[in-house]
Amino acid sequence: MVAGICAGAVAAAVLAAGTGGAHGYSMHTDARFAPPTAFVPSAAVTYDSKLVPAASWIEVSQRTAENGATTVRLRVEGLVPGHEYGVHVHQKPCAADPAAAGGHYQHEVGTDAAHVNAANEVWLDFTAGDKGAGEASARHDWGFRRGEASSVVIHDMPGTHGARVACFTVPFGWVTG
C-alpha cells in the first residue's frame, strides 16, 4: 500500500508541474488539506481545522504570458460558509510551522505601505459561499522571480494581519528568455 501512496504522490507532482519557456508559463494544481501531523502528508496543510477542515479542497492555477503578465486563480471547497478569508502568495513552501512559508511575495520588495498592497503582492481574498466554496483571481503586469514564490497562505481574515490558518505549496513558475 505504501508503494501505491508514493506512486500517487509522484503522479500528483507530475500533474502539478507547469509548462513554460520563452512563450509563457501555465500551471494548475490542487490538493486536499491535511493537518501537519497527518500519516499521509499533503502539499495543503491546515493549521486551524475549524476554519479550514481536513479534506477541504484547494486549486491554484497560474498563467504567465510571454510579456510577464501573470494571472493567479484560486478555488476552494469545504470551508466555513460566510467566513471572509485573506489569501496571499508567500515566499517559501509550507511546513508544520505556519511561519515557515515566509513573508508575502512582493514584486518590489519593501516593508512600508507603498509595498504592502494588492498592486505589489498577489492577494486572493474571498468570502466562502453558503456551501463553503470560494474563488478569487489576481492579475498583474509582472511575473514571479525564479524561486521566490512557493506557496499560497490562507489567513483567518482579509488584509495583511490575519493568523495563518492553512498553506498550500504551489509550483509557481516564471518566464525565461
Automatic annotation (TrEMBL):
GO molecular function: superoxide dismutase activity
EC number per UniProt: 1.15.1.1
Domain Superoxide dismutase copper/zinc binding per the UniProt entry, residue ranges: 58-137
Top enzyme category: oxidoreductase
The keyword Oxidoreductase is annotated on this UniProt entry: yes
Domain of life per record: Bacteria
Coiled-coil blocks: none
Alphabetized Pfam families for the sequence: Sod_Cu (PF00080)
InterPro entries: SOD-like_Cu/Zn_dom_sf (IPR036423), SOD_Cu_Zn_dom (IPR001424)
Family statement: Belongs to the Cu-Zn superoxide dismutase family.
Descriptive protein name: Cu-Zn family superoxide dismutase
